[in-house]
Write a structure and sequence with these properties.
With 492 residues, the chain is α/β, with parallel strands linked by helices. Helices cover 36% and strands 21% of the residues. The protein is globular.
Length: 492
Amino acid sequence: MKSKPGKVLIIGSGIGGLSSAIILAKLGFDVTVLEKNRQPGGLTRSYTRDGIECAVGIHYLGSLGRNQVLRKFFDYLGVTDSIPVSRMGQDGVIDRYLFDAPETHPPRFDLPEGFDAYEENLQQAFPDERARIEIIVAAIRKTAGQLHALDLLYATESDFSLLDQSQPYGEVLDTLGCSPGLRSVLAIPSSWIGVPLADCPAYYHNMALASYVSSSWRLQQSGSDMVDVLVDRLLELGGKVITGAEISEILVDSRVVNGVQLTSGECLAGSHVIAAVHPQVVLQMLPEGAVKPSYRNRITKLQNTHSIFSVHARIDADTHAEIPYNIFKIETDEAGNVPDLKYYQIRESEKKGVNLLSILTSGKDDAWAPWNDTRSGCRGDDYREAKAQHAMQLIREAEQLFGSFKGLKMLDAYTPLTIRDWVNSPEGSAYGVLRSSSQTLATAILNRTAVKGLYLAGQNVMAPGVIGTIMGSFSSVKLILGADEFRKTIRL
């Protein structure tokens, strides 16, 4: 570094906040991460019920193979060897899609590892669409090459070669004339990032799909263990993490940031502040006049991705063995769009003879509207009863696939309101800002705030998921260092 690094305050200790902190600490910055909750980690952290770890935001990881993008990120952060993972797809299946429309869809489709295997599975399922499939997979292969080469991260501001694929993927499939069945199979990756297929930029769709087809992995331990590895790495580099530190205001003078004030009244000075929280939450922390009205208006009007509802239950391990892949039960319409889906995992738990069933589906915001003005822990028996009833309905639907669950005990269920209160995500959005084609301009260069020294990080900067979030962290560091210094200093 040509000049002495400054003091950096990072708001939020999810994967975005912690990865940003580690990168800057490696470069010699004085870094402090501030977390409002009692434990760091945000949605990355799992939680314990009945002695069993329940995952929240980390269900599986993509592209951890040698020379692949997430492996490059973990290697740079210095955490690869400390996060034990197991490779999925060894039996040929990473995800299994189950469809509800036998007249237009195959009963199931298996997502395998590797682009050759993926193309072969598509052609076997849809033999009359070979030419379309070749075009589709060629584009995904190209995106995979760009993703692993980190083209988006090292691009100059005038290089829009990756963003020229902003056409909605639904339009791409319409132009090709894909059947409803093929359309549904290709719609699933847009669901992973919370964007409807009709409005999902082709690049984001292909990036999400390419990341998992390249290689997919499960954590051998819990999300909390992964958080602890990241925190320990930051502490090893001289950084700090302060929990129970809720921010009341980002301190700004003449549109230059100079620190933060906590709800306790304590003020912390810093020459740089990185807010690894939703940009609409950041606006609430800024004093009036800190940013231009046009910026405030743009951020306020941003649409967010949908919310989720999740259930965790314990089941008998002898009757219900661990399934080495994920299962998606998919609802489709006549055109092949996917209005909703349910995601299932059955995994070994920390308890002998007990496995963990996890179910994720759409949040159904209207169902929880009566409690919008309440906070977690203060919602009453009627809320808990409504939540339990919905959870049991999902479990009964799951039994249609897996058979009656022996030794069933529901451990926990959470709603969009839980996520909203836990990580300050507006409307309980699971994936943050909607990275849609219609919002391309509104979300462009989102981490530029027009306040000198204030930057954004987290899944809202570039893309959701672990890969997108960490790439956003490097992107924010790039703004702090400057593009030329970044390219010289950080080689992945």
